[in-house]
Amino acid sequence: MEIIIRSMDAQGDPQTRSFSRNSSVNSRLVLGIENEKLVYTVAAVEPYERDVQMEDTDYGFSETPPTIFFAEVNGKLAGRIKMLKWWNQFGYVEDLVVNPEYRGAGIGRKLLERGIRWARENNFPGVMLETQDDNVPACMLYQSCGFVLGGFDRNVYKGIDPKRKDSALYWYLIF
Question: 10 Å Cβ neighbour count for 108?
Fold first, then answer.
């Protein structure tokens, strides 16, 4: 399988709404602190389906528009990463998504590596991103690419749904 990574052209890409964030969850990260460092273990949970709506949002933290890279497999859109200059001068992964039929094929890694390269090319001090404690495959990808867990927020999603139990996790790759 040949994976091609390309940047978004000036006209954008109307197919971006075709991505799916749906996934099955059967584990989550359990956080702890050792020697003033965040640590975690992976614990099994009662399986459930995660349905996250797609957003195409620029939150206005930067005057610079986002840089978007797409992954294609055999001419079909398989994934996307959206990179921003964040308020703290880091490159920020605002969005990384791989369609379910292509997960596990290395597409997320290739997109993340391209985003990291973009941050280096633009002389950012590193890359940061946010994900959830029940998105264990993403967390394992970030760790395997050198990211470290730098923080968490147990309440950030409560405004969306007061019953949500997942926590936001903040990952950093410092150059």
Answer: 23
Question: Which candidate, 97, 109, 169, 120, places its Cα nearest to that of 144?
Answer: 109
Question: What does the block give as tokens for 69?
Answer: 């890279």
Q: Could you give the dihedral angle defined by the CA atoms of residues 125, 150, 128 and 59, in that order, rounded to the nearest 10 degrees?
A: -120
DSSP-derived secondary structure letter, 66: P
Cα dihedral 107, 25, 163, 143 sign:
negative
Of the chain, the percentage scoring pLDDT greater than 90 comes to 74
Q: What is the pLDDT of residue 53?
A: 58
Q: What residues contact 165, with CB distance under 8 A and at least 6 apart?
A: none
40 close to 149: Cβ distance less than 8 angstroms: yes
Domain boundaries, the chain: 3-13+22-174
Helices (H), the chain: 107-121, 136-144
User: What class is the 3-13+22-174 domain?
Assistant: alpha beta
In the DSSP assignment, the letter for residue 101 is G
Given this model, what pLDDT does residue 73 score? 95
Helices (H), 54-162: 107-121, 136-144
Q: Residues of the chain whose pLDDT is less than 70?
A: 9-18, 52-63
Lookup result for tokens 């294609």: 72
Please, which residues have CB within 8 angstroms of residue 71's CB and are 6 or more apart in sequence? Answer: 3, 4, 5, 77, 78, 79, 80, 98, 102, 107, 110, 111
